[in-house]
Each structure stands twice: as structure tokens, then as C-alpha cells.
Amino acid sequence: MTLPLNCDSCALPAFAAEEASPGHSGKKRPQVLVVDDDADNLQLACYVAEQAGYAVLSAKTGRQALELIGHQAIDLLLLDVVLPELDGFAVLKRVRAGADQALMGPRSSQALPVIAITALASEADQREIMAAGFNDYLCKPYSIQALESLLARYCPLDNPAIIAPESPLTSQR
């Protein structure tokens, strides 16, 4: 199946994602950074997040992601685990090591939520992902509803400063 997606915001400069969306009364939309080296996966995740009402930034490498995180207030990070050069585990380690105000956006007392997006689906892989410090994970291929659910859980549109309760995905382990 092929879905024609036009995710123009994924290609826009970072400052364009700061604009308020209609229906959010001039407030800044929560900003999601999507990191995936596969163009189709990146475009789909960007499209879903944008359609759900989030401001979206994208990166194809771990290094690009770290650069954006260092210069943008990110509210949620959707991070592919298998990336060239600097994989998702290394990116997460650097984010967690430098988890200060610059990396937290409006979450002044909480760490940046990081969701692994991965094709690594074995129970051992999932345990490794969670042990590494990811807040949750989403196995590829995933449904649009599953991604929307994680977006809403970890970065609610009505109050992005609230960290959602434990995910059903992680609470059933």
C-alpha cells in the first residue's frame, strides 16, 4: 500500500515549527522531533504528528538530532534506534547526560520524553530499549493510532508540561 503524503513542515527550517496553529489561541504548539534515516518512515511520523496538532522538526541522523536538541525547545523525541554513525542508544545517552533546561522545553522538572521507534521487536530488544532509558517504544510497522496514542500520552496538546502516566505498553512487562 502506498500513501501519498505531503509533509512540508518536515522540510521547513526549525523556526517555522514555532508558529502557533489555528485552534490553539496563539499558544506555541508542543514541538516533536522525529529522527529516522528512512525517508518514508520519517515522512509518515512527521505527517501523523503534524496532523495531530504538533509542531514538527525532523532529522535523518543522530548528529542532526543532537544539533536540533541543542538549539530548540523539544517537548518529545521520537527516535529511531538503528541510525547510521550515531545510533539511537548513543543519542539517548547524550540527551540524558545533558538533560538540563535547554533540553527540556517547558518540562522544568522532568526529563525529555524519548520514544524509541524500532523494528527491533523481540522481548530482549524491548528490555534493552527500556533499560537504556527510553520512556517507551513503538515497533515498526506501527499503526497511526499507536503513534497518536504515544504522542498524546507523553505530550498532551492541552497541557504539554504534564508527563503522562505509565504507558500500557511498558506497564504490562
From TrEMBL:
Residues spanning the signal sequence: none
Modified residues (4-aspartylphosphate): D80
Record's keyword annotation contains Phosphoprotein: yes
Transmembrane segments: none
Keywords associated with the record: Phosphoprotein, Two-component regulatory system
One annotated GO biological process: phosphorelay signal transduction system
Domain Response regulatory as annotated: residue spans: 31-155
Domain of life the protein comes from: Bacteria
Pfam assignment, any one: Response_reg
Protein name: Response regulatory domain-containing protein
Originating species: Halomicronema hongdechloris C2206
